[in-house]
Amino acid sequence: MVIGTIADTLGRGIDSVTGAVSETFFEPVVRLGVTGLSRAGKTVFITSLVANLLDRGRMPGLEAAQSGRIQAAFLQPQPDDTVPRFDFETHLAALTGPNPHWPDSTRHVSELRLSLRVQPSGLLSGLSGPRTVHLDIVDYPGEWLLDLSLLDQRYEDWAAQALDQARGRPGGAEYLSHLADLDPSARLDEPQAQALARAYTAYLAAARAAGFSDCTPGRFLLPGELEGSPALTFAPLPQSASPRGSLAREFARRYEAYKAQVVKPFFRDHFARIDRQIVLIDALGAIHSGPPAVEDLRRTMAGILRAFRPGRNSFLSTLVGRRTDKILFAATKADHLHHSQHPKLTAIMEALVRDARNRADFAGAATRAMAIAALRATVEETRSHDGGRLDLVRGTLLDGGKQAAFHPGDLPEDPNALLVPARQGQAAWLDGDFDVMRFAPATLTLKPGEGPPHIRLDSAAEFLLGDRLR
Predict the structure, then answer these.
(1) CA-to-CA distance for 201 and 213, rounded, in angstroms?
(2) Same domain for 297 and 259
(3) Omega cis (within 30) before 448
(4) One domain, residues 318 and 456
(5) Domains in the chain: how many in total?
């Protein structure tokens, strides 16, 4: 174990040194991690970002694009031969074709390399020719990122926390009913173990559908090739004195195998190499789901920061080589609100991730929160209503395909109007009713040199990449 750890550390050190030499003397590489929880819009974000970097007519907020210093952009084969390629062309066709539709969501790690030929800025810019900057975009499910918390938890601690959460969430009662007559110290019965794992997975799916964010283990919801494996066939059980060969003892062993064989390799092979990171958050969906979902999202965001800035005593610090130095927390689906409400959504976003941002800022990472829409699916309009004016957004409804104008409710000026009831454990909002509509992507007619329409995608790109394009 010690020898293996030393070998892994030396290997990462050599990779870091050779990578630094390559970036300094040849062509710099920026590895951008894109993650977020279910339905936050990771696939759409990457597709629109790449399309708008290839055709930069809608990117005035990206200084290198606005000034014309980005002379060319082109896709290249990714450097990691064992990682699936992000299917940019198929996703772009889904969003911009004659019958536009949302592409399938992220279910595994994928990668894409976009190379930019950039003319340097500054006093010496006229003395040097353009250089090539490689942008390696790494797409991974946010559900996997949540598994970070398991690395420092024993099975007994995780099980106690998971059971406590289940008591207050949709679907939890159904899972807990499976434990009513269960003896954790009884001898392992594989069909029983599989039934418990399926019941726990069903509960996690119900909790996620209800707007809850912290649903671990993440691979239970996105198993991929591990579906049905022993590493995913366990569930939380009440604590008991469990002899060898018992159900509880075997579940604890499989939990440790999950951490060692699934969680650690992901962080070592993919996450530890990320330079910049965007975390996409469906804040509007959480608000619509109610105070418990908002509080769960706040705690989840604070926990996620541990992945980007592990402390010296954190187990993850032995896995991470270089550290992410810029992190953007982006509330997606800003096009579901009139622009007059965007500052309110940004303020709510900042308040939601304040604990997380404070930790990262303290450790030296630059962070920002903003409201964006990677692909704008609506237009705005204002109507007279009850003697006043009502700001609306209009789009094509995902269910039914009809055009509809929509006002989801006014977000509060003070984010504490949401966060305080959430922290106090209220079951529902007392003073507001926030609704969310599901819009289909709009049919687009793009002019030459234009990427898909968006809201503040250029500002997000400037924060994440602008300094590396100078």
Answers:
(1) 14
(2) no
(3) no
(4) yes
(5) 3
CATH number of the domain enclosing 73: 3.40.50.300
Read off the pTM: 0.86
Q: Is the pLDDT of residue 2 over 70?
A: no
Kindly state whether residue 37 falls inside one of the protein's structural domains.
yes
CA angle 173, 179, 185 (to 5 degrees): 160
pLDDT digits (tens, 9 = 90+) for 305-316: 766 654 444 445
How distant, in Å, are the alpha carbons of 35, 36, 216, 392 from that of 357?
Answer: 17, 16, 23, 32
Residues 124 and 30 in one domain: yes
Mean pLDDT of 415-440: 86
Task: Let me know if residue 249 belongs to a domain.
Answer: yes
- Following DSSP, what letter does each residue of 362-403 receive, concatenated? HTT-EEEEEE-BSS---EEEEEEETTEEEEEEEEEBTTT--E
Q: Is 236 found in the same domain as 160? A: yes
Q: Are 301 and 251 in contact (CB under 8 A)?
A: no
Residue with tokens 């434990």: 179
Using alpha carbons only, give the angle 153, 154, 157 rounded to the nearest 5 degrees.
80
Tokens matching residue 114: 């976009």
In a domain, 431, yes or no: no
Asked if 144 and 222 touch (Cβ cutoff 8 Å), the reply is: yes
| Strand 110-118, strand 70-76: pairing | antiparallel
| Structural domain for 465, as ranges | 2-140+273-376+444-469
Report the DSSP pairing between strands 403-406 and 388-396: antiparallel
Q: Do 464 and 327 share a domain, yes or no?
A: yes
Mean pLDDT for the chain overall: 86
Q: Tell me how long the chain is.
A: 470
For 360, the 3-state DSSP assignment is: helix
CA Rg value for the chain: 23
Is residue 254 within 8 Å of 234, Cβ to Cβ?
Answer: yes
Whether residue 66 sits in one domain with residue 84: yes
